[in-house]
Amino acid sequence: MINKITTEWKGGMAFESDNPSGNSFLIDDKVEGVDKREGLAPKALMLSALAGCTGLDVVSVLDKMKVTDYKFKMEVSGELTEEHPKYYHKVKLDYHFYGEDLKEKKFKKAVDLSVEKYCGVMEMFRQFAQLETEIHYHNK
């Protein structure tokens, strides 16, 4: 399968990029002396792509296991190399599950399946970064 996107320069440091789904978003980066940003920074988007990919997997697996009463968020942090070209060489992904009487084994299984088997973005990150994952349970 081939995915194709089109990214168009909109002036300054802003680009509009589409998606095979037909949606689009703005990409930009910090400019000296300008505080306002219209879009998302490219490297931060990589972390968002990682969270989105594994998050979709986790929710899908939990749905198949009939787990429905929970809230879920992820925090991803990436450490960039010092030298150019700067890239993430260390990435930490924290999964947070919230709810009453959380079935920890099911959540762990869903995360493990994503991390070890399903998440293609995770596999791409493994090619250049040391990955660490941790699951946090917040029982009410």
TrEMBL record:
Q: InterPro entries of this UniProt entry?
A: KH_dom-like_a/b (IPR015946), OsmC/Ohr_fam (IPR003718), OsmC/Ohrsf (IPR036102)
Q: Which Pfam families match?
A: OsmC
Listed Gene3D superfamilies: 3.30.300.20
Query: Looking at the record's lineage, which domain of life comes first?
Result: Bacteria
Name-wise, this protein is: OsmC family protein
Name the species this protein comes from: Pontimicrobium aquaticum
Taxonomic lineage is: Bacteria, Pseudomonadati, Bacteroidota, Flavobacteriia, Flavobacteriales
